[in-house]
Design brief:
Belongs to the UDP-glycosyltransferase family. This is UDP-glycosyltransferase 74B1. Keywords: Transferase. It comes from Sesamum radiatum (Black benniseed). Helix content is 34%, strand content 13%. By secondary structure, it is α/β, with parallel strands linked by helices. Helix 2 (46-67) packs parallel to helix 3 (86-94) and helix 4 packs across helix 6. The protein folds into 2 domains: 10-196, Glycogen Phosphorylase B (Rossmann fold); 235-337, Rossmann fold.
Amino acid sequence: MLGLQRAETSFATTCYTINSINAHGIDVLPISDGFDEGGFKQAPCLEAYLESFRIIGSKTLTELIHSLEASTLPINCLVYDSLLPWGLEVAKSLGILSVVFLTNSVSVCSIYRQIDLGLLPLPVKPENMPVLLPGLPPLGREDMPSFLMEPPNIYLTAIMEMFASLDQNNFVLANTFEKLEDEVAKAMSGLWSVWMVGPIIPSAYLDEQIKTDTEYGGSLWESRGSICTKWLNSMPPESVVYVLFGSMARISANQCQPSRRSGQPGRGVLLDTLWVELNSLEALSLGVPVVAVPQWSDQPMNAKFIEEVWKVGVRAKKDGGGIVRKEEVKRCVGEGWWGKKAKSLGRTL
C-alpha cells in the first residue's frame, strides 16, 4: 500500500520466510529469528522461539537499519507487528519513529487495553459472565479471546507487554475503519489514540482507486491464481463455497471431514484462520456471506461480531466434543445462502 503511494518502504522478515516469499513491488530484507533453516518448526517450543526472536531479531533488525544509514534513503520510521513488542525497543534505541500495527480488531484490542489499565481483572471467572464492557455487546465465555480463558500463556504475555508500552509509540494503527467498529471506537476514545487505517486489502477489490492494485504484494506460496480463476469460471454462478483454513490453528481430522461434506452448493467462505480479522474484512468489503468456525485467539469474538453485530454471516455451533458436525455446516451454509437471513447477509459495510 505504501509502495503504491510512492513512499519508500522496505519489509523485513525472517531469513527462513524470505527464502519462500514471493514479493512484488516492495523490498524484502532479512532479519534472523535464530532458526534460519526451519523457522518456527525448528524451535524446541513456542517459548524458545519467541525468546530467540526477541534477542536475535532485535539485534539483526538494529544491524539492518544501521547498515542503511549511509544510503540515500535511511530508515526513519519502524512499523512493527503488535505481537513483536520488542520493535518499540529497537526504534527507541535508534532514535526513529515507532508505529505499532494492531492486527486484531479494535474490539478485541479494547479488551486487552482495559486489562492493562486495570479495568478488567484477570482471570475472567465464569461467575462474572457475561462480561460487560463499553462499546461491546455482552460477551459469554464462548465469545472471549481464547487467551483470556486459558492458563497464562506466552501469547497473552506478549500481547500484554505490547499494551503496557502502547502509549510510548508515536502512532498506533489498526486494520479497521470507524463505521465497522464505531461503538467501541467512541467508548475507548479517552483510553487510547488509535488511527484506523483499514481495511487494508487491494484497492481493486475495494474502492478501485488503483485498478492495478490486485494483490497484497507478498505471498509464502507460488501464485496459482490463473488456474483457480479458470476453474471458477467453468463453474455455475454462485456454486462454490470457499473453505479457508489457517496456518497455525490445529484442525483435527474429525473436524476436516464435516467441512468437506457440507452437501450444499453456494458461494461464500467457511472461515477458520489464524488472524481471522483480515479475512473478515475481505468478506465484508467484497459482500461475501461468511460461515465462521472459530478455533482460538481472537476468532471467537470475531465470529460473534460476524453473526450478531455486523450480521453478515452465520456462526457454526460445536457439539459436546468441540466438533462442528456436517449437519451444522449444512445448516449454516443453507441459512447463509437460501434461508431467511440470506438476503441481508453478505452486504458490504
